[in-house]
Amino acid sequence: MLSYGRQSISEDDIAAISAVLRSDFLTQGPLIAEFERCFAERVGARHAVAVNSATAALHLAMRVAEISVGDRVVTSPITFLASANAVAYVGAIPDFCDIDPVTFTLDPRELERSWRDDTRAVVAVDYAGQSADLPEIARIARARGAVVIEDACHGVGGSFHVATRPDRAWSLGANPWADIGVFSFHPVKTMTTGEGGMLVTDRQDWADLARTLRSHGITRDHARFETPTSDSLLGEQGPWFYEMQELGFNYRLTDLQCALGLSQLKRLDSFIARRRDIVAAYNTAFSDLDWLRPPGLRAAVDATTTSWHLYTVQLDFTALGRTRTHVMDELREAGIGTQVLYIPVHLQPWYRRTYGYGPGKCPVAEAFYACALSLPLYPAMTDADVARVIAVVRALAPVSLSIP
Question: Per DSSP, what are the bridge partners of residue 254?
């Protein structure tokens, strides 16, 4: 069975984890800082903070940016729940604006049209590994004093171009238009640490606070201690001493996971290259089908820089004469696993009950969902695997639409 996505684990990955198991540290050891340093260098950020999930990173992004009760944060409805849930965690209001019909990312025109005075931040989601229109989103947000948080969970290792600087590719998650970037290392993503995430930013104060919050709000840095040495009980601040200065969380990543992340990082370029090759093969094979629309690009040049976490097509189920369930069942019987990514977040029961959202709020996103299907895409797929997916998908055509 070919799943829609899966991890690629090598003997080097296994050896890296085994080395940690034989070391003195399984967690809170030296590999945390090493992974952060190497990842920050790779994406071009000044600071990287490793945490146990991208959800944790999104939550910390809200905290360090001081998003709180009464603030509105706008994001895309076509994303995993965490992009919006993290807003609710801090008591703010998650809100949604519609997507661009080509890239399936947040549409800046809709963002500007629907902007409200209480909006304090935008979470721009890089769907399937393609960037949102960050320069336009940042222009709109910063003119109104709002923070831009780039949800680059789909985009590890990817980059994008802008019209004003066609000679340069800008990294997803770490670029002049994102105040904070968030990445995911879930097994189906471009690279993995098992579970895990990363927050990146160029602001030292935000990085310092994120590191404190990820570990119970504790600091062991004597230079930052607030308790006076004259305190009758706590004045002796020896090597055991620590302070809880914030109400923090246990969002730490382990050395085992960082060892895997460091090993995977070495193969990131090869992972992305293979994903691009598969996408190119799919695009060519499906270009003549009038009942299937491949994913689009904002600019043709980004075909060489998009990291392609997902290959999500739009299918005309009416033309096929089948429901999506029937199509997925048919593909599964042929050994092809698929997935629907995603159900629009504003239509989830909790969001309907809590904020009164419902159908019609984001019509482009809702139309996207009605036709969306993600096909298998991961580096370990062989050319024969890719050819099998192509053959089975093309065979979905009804007799009247079949192509020799």
Answer: 27
